[in-house]
Amino acid sequence: MQTGCTNRKVSDVICRKVLSASLAATCLSFAAPSQAQQYVLDLYEGPAPGSQDWSEPLVVHSTDGGEDRYNTTQPRLQVFLPEADKANGAAVVLLPGGGMRVLGMGPYIQETAALLNEEGVAVIVLEYRTLQRTPEEIAQATAPRPPASGPIVFPSMEIRNANANPSPDDPAMNEVLRLAVNDGQAALRLVRSKAGEWHIDPDRVGMFGTSAGGGVAFGTMMAGEDGATPDFIISNFGPALQDIVVPQDAPPLFLITESWHGPVTDGLIALFQMWIEKREPAELHVYDVPNFTMTPELWGPRMLEWMEERGLLTPEPEA
Fold first, then answer.
1. Where would a tag sit more exposed on the chain, N or C end, judged by fewer CB atoms within 10 A?
2. Is the entire prediction scored with pTM above 0.85?
3. Based on the structure, what is the number of domains in the chain?
């Protein structure tokens, strides 16, 4: 069964698939046990620059199999390293989603870390800064909701320069995105500084962004600072949240989304088109599944194949 796109025409690379029984069986081999992190590190020494005066305390709300973190002021890294005999030098900074208002640290964090660790890839989860929210706003966000009567319908919006930000003129959101991008840059610098200790190749450090985490990844790319840009980007329904220009040394993209995710889908299609117009490497998978149901069993096999094809899983030959 075909599990990936085999040519580069737009009409063929935009794949619409449903997870079939045969693919599900194939993916059982990816069901690794949950991986425990080896380290939790503060990203900065002392208060994070730019949020020293934030006053709302961190609130951790338990969810089914994970937690939601509100009011992240002091970014941290959760470090998941593969077994030493499996490590191949590749690393991913994993950016959770949550609309820049919360960090959703659900089971997919452990599942994604286990999947990548099994293939020898180090995973560093970045808890980046999010919008300050009052106790009343958090109570409203975490209140039980009645079952949905149907699929979520997202409002349409015009996508320009691949920017899918639903609130482009909100100064508070723009500021927290700027700070989260700073956190992304600092995380890449720290990971590369640990290359020897963590058995990482500093030239194979990418970013994996989910939802708003994708926006942080693309913002980090656009900042373009030496030593603080990703070598590749994987985006799981995570569009750009700012105007994009294809960089001169554009990182390869692996983009995943659902058919009916509104501006998210449209924004990722726009990114893909920008990359291929410049003859830069990009792959896009649009799955015909309900929104927010994609799991590593669906996209994991092809993602790993893509990483292998791009040489990201190949250790550097010893001198």
1. C
2. yes
3. 1
The string of DSSP codes covering the chain is ---S--S--HHHHSB-----HHHHHHHGGG-PPPPPPSEEEESSSSSPTT-TT--SPPEEEEETTEEEEE---S-EEEEE---TTT--S-EEEEE--STTT-EEE-HHHHHHHHHHHHTT-EEEEEE-------HHHHHHHHS--PPPSS---PPP---BTTB--S-TT-HHHHHHHHHHHHHHHHHHHHHHHTHHHHT--TTSEEEEEETHHHHHHHHHHHH--TT-S-S-EEEES--BSS-----TTPPPEEEEEETT-THHHHHHHHHHHHHHHTT--EEEEEE-S-TT---HHHHHHHHHHHHHHTTTTSPPPP-
> How confident is the model over 72-85, as a mean pLDDT?
96
- Domain contains 279: yes
Domain interval for residue 230: 10-139+157-309
Q: Note whether residue 184 is domain-resident.
A: yes
